[in-house]
Amino acid sequence: MWEVTRTVRQADTEWVSLGVICVLLNIFAKGIRWYKLSGGMGQQAGIRKVLAAFLARQVLNLIYPVRTGDVSHILVLGKDGDQRAIVLGTVVLEKLADLVSYMLLVLLLLTLLPLPTWLDRSALGITLPIV
């Protein structure tokens, strides 16, 4: 525990502040994205409720397993069956958009970062049988 405290005290406050600002901007941007994805239902609920539901979702996903926050998001924003189906669809759409973004990021990193020779050979050994 003392080692953690010592390491935190040695951290550069400018970098920590920049990291916190980036995380807050990311959360806000995702909340705005949810507001836009939910369309008329989001405008009916209001941006504050959508942002609050998104933040509650994030916290629940951190605390509980099995994407509990996603279920809570559906229950909070969807009042009846039709609205819950719409929210579920936007959850699926968001997960697909995240998956595509991660895949593109991995492809970009694979082209930009030099790979060690052992990884390069093993990746070639894995991809050749697939092709």
Walk me through the structure.
With 131 residues, this protein is an all-alpha fold. It has one domain (2-93). It contains seven helices and no strands. Helix 4 packs antiparallel against helix 5 and helix 5 crosses helix 6. The mean pLDDT is 82.
For this entry, give a set of tags.
mainly alpha, single chain, 131 residues
Cα separation of the termini: 50 Å
Structural class: mainly alpha
Rg calculated over all Cα atoms: 20 Å
Mean pLDDT: 82
Number of helices: 7
The structural domain count equals 1
> Main beta sheet, described?
none
Q: Which segments are poorly predicted (pLDDT under 50) over 5 or more consecutive residues?
A: none
In one word, what is the shape?
A: extended
Quick structural summary:
This protein has helices at residues 2-10, 13-37, 39-45, 47-63, 68-77, 81-112, 117-130. It is an all-alpha fold.
What is the fold's blueprint, element by element?
Layout: H1 2-10, H2 13-37, H3 39-45, H4 47-63, H5 68-77, H6 81-112, H7 117-130
Helix pairs in contact: 2-4, 4-5, 5-6
